[in-house]
Design a protein that fits this description.
The protein has five helices and no strands. The chain starts with a helix and ends with a helix. Helix 4 (96-105) crosses helix 5 (125-141). It has helices spanning 2-18, 53-65, 67-70, 96-105, 125-141. The chain has a single domain (2-141), classed as Orthogonal Bundle (Cytochrome Bc1 Complex, Chain D, domain 2). The longest helix has 17 residues, at 2-18. It is mainly alpha-helical. The radius of gyration is 14 Å and the shape is globular.
Length: 145
């Protein structure tokens, strides 16, 4: 049973990291041609008109713990970390638990050429749930369901 859980976790992490090496090209969701819209942004992110209360709390937690690497509004940063508003991270490919595992355990590089993501200390599962709510609302506003 523990072996099955470990293998499943490894597969989830591998899938999450594997998409990192896919070429950016023209992304139909973000409209990104691989050229950053800003000096550091990778993806162009359209903001939703409103955020739920949970997503608002998640936004604050994201800004305090994730934005330094993944950029403002999860747009990614050239040479630092990938955008989370990207089809690679859509719920059917990376379920919410993938975000929990990435924060708790870190992620080996596989989808993007940014190197490994270290674990993020000091965040609870509840914090990550709220951060994920924020990311999911950004994704939906950008046609990623």
């Amino acid at each position: 049973m523990l072996k099955t859980i470990a293998i499943t976790g490894a597969i989830i992490i591998a899938l999450g990291v594997g998409a990192t090496f896919l070429p950016l090209g023209d992304d139909p969701v973000t409209g990104n041609s691989g050229e950053p819209s800003d000096v550091s942004d990778i993806a162009h992110v359209t903001l939703p008109d409103t955020l739920t209360q949970n997503a608002q709390i998640g936004q604050r937690a994201y800004e305090a713990n994730c934005a330094a690497c993944h950029g403002i509004n999860a747009a990614g940063q050239e040479g630092v970390a990938p955008p989370l508003v990207h089809t690679i991270y859509e719920p059917s490919h990376h379920a919410d638990e993938s975000f929990q595992r990435a924060v708790a355990l870190g992620v080996r590089a596989h989808h993007w050429p940014f190197g490994n993501m270290p674990e993020v200390e000091g965040l609870t599962r509840g914090d990550v749930t709220l951060i994920t709510a924020y990311i999911r609302e950004l994704q939906r506003a950008n046609g990623i369901d």
